[in-house]
Specification:
Blueprint (H helix, E strand, L loop, with lengths): L1 E9 L4 E7 L2 E8 L7 E5 L2 E7 L1 H7 L9 E8 L4 E9 L7 E7 L2 E5 L2 E2 L5 E7 L4 E7 L2 E3 L4 E6 L2 H18 L10 E3 L7 H4 L12
């Protein structure tokens, strides 16, 4: 099991994140004020960019099926070759739940955001065979609008993908571009959908997959 900390170091008018393994910085990204611009991501001496897909997003506004893909981003490698995509999906429009889909090198992974109140926000990561390969945990407390997460993954490839997702997710749902100084915010999220809650396995970190 690989454990990392995903830490936001800058929040106002553009954001900066670091992925840390013990005391080493192994990944970085700088987010423009407008999320729908290009996001440059570096990890393990590899460079990627996440590019918002304007056309796909426009088309999604007219799709009311469960196959709709919202807030779509494409992932390009350092040679500007399309290698993957990221988006939000829904099981159904009414009485369903939201989840996230990440495709990379012809493999597909799924992330499920599950709020457990004071126990925190848990985001398990599954492969296409419905096997859990990672767990992202968001801290309930943020200072000066800066988010922090703990990322647990089974190998370096899943680590990289979880890093991509964390950048995408935090910017879509948290960390507003607002000036904050010596502020403290406690955020509890609660999930009531039983099917969604069943995706969380509290024993994953102990090696019980």
């Amino acid at each position: 099991m690989i454990t990392n900390r995903f830490i936001q170091t800058k929040a106002n008018f553009g954001k900066i994140y670091e992925l840390r393994e013990e005391n080493r910085i192994i990944g970085t990204t700088k987010i423009p004020i407008n999320l729908r611009m290009q996001i440059n991501v570096s990890i393990a001496n590899k460079n990627f960019k996440l590019q918002f897909s304007i056309i796909k997003n426009a088309l999604s506004r007219f799709d009311y099926t469960k196959n709709v893909r919202l807030l779509p981003f494409q992932i390009f490698n350092e040679n500007n070759v399309l290698v993957g995509s990221l988006c939000e999906r829904r099981t159904k429009w009414l009485f369903g739940y939201t989840f996230f889909e990440l495709s990379y090198n012809d493999e597909t992974y799924y992330f499920y955001a599950i709020g457990l109140g004071k126990k925190g926000l848990k985001i398990p990561m599954y492969d296409s065979n419905d096997i859990q390969v990672g767990l992202i945990e968001k801290d309930n407390i943020s200072y000066d609008n800066k988010s922090t997460y703990t990322i647990n993954t089974l190998d370096k490839n899943y680590q990289m993908l979880a890093f991509f997702f964390s950048v995408y997710y935090d910017n879509a749902y948290y960390s507003p571009n607002e000036v904050a100084y010596k502020s403290k915010e406690i955020n509890y999220k609660y999930t009531i959908n039983k099917e969604l809650k069943s995706k969380y396995n509290p024993q994953f970190i102990e090696g019980r997959y």
